[in-house]
Amino acid sequence: MTRPKKEKELTRSHHITLRLTDTEYELVTDNAIEAGLSRSDYLRKMILDGKINVRYDIVVDLPELQKLVSEFGKIGGNLNQIAKYFHTGGIRSMAMQDEISQCITDLYELRKEVKRMAGDFHGNIKTHRK
User: Per its UniProt entry, which superkingdom is the organism in (predicted)?
Assistant: First the structure.
């Protein structure tokens, strides 16, 4: 069975020839692989859009961050228990509400601390290059 024909407007019938040095060719190939695209798709997007956003997933293996992540998990479990308590008719007091507000403030501070420790890894190419 043959492959179905593309619609007329999707058929790419125009060719552009481009000569590259070995270094340029390697850069284009590496960048296309990092973007998860074929060389043709990569060059087409670069020509038409001028920019390709590549998202990197960084795995940080710091014991301090692992401990904080596990603490966040425990806090999440506690928050679920508190929410369940209130949703099943638990009594609210002003002192309890103040304590919950203080805990939320502490969580935001903890989040800032984790961001400071981990840094901003989005788009830092030097982190990923070998």
Answer: Bacteria
> Rounded distance, CA 47 to CA 26, Å?
18
Within-domain flag for 74: yes
Total domain count, the chain: 2
Encode the chain (130 residues) as per-residue pLDDT tens digits.
777 776 666 777 888 888 989 998 998 898 888 888 899 888 888 888 887 776 656 566 667 777 777 787 788 788 888 888 888 888 888 888 888 888 888 888 877 777 776 665 444 445 444 4
Q: Check if the beta carbon of residue 45 is closer than 8 Å to that of residue 28.
A: no
Residue 44 and residue 95 in one domain = no
Full-model pTM: 0.38
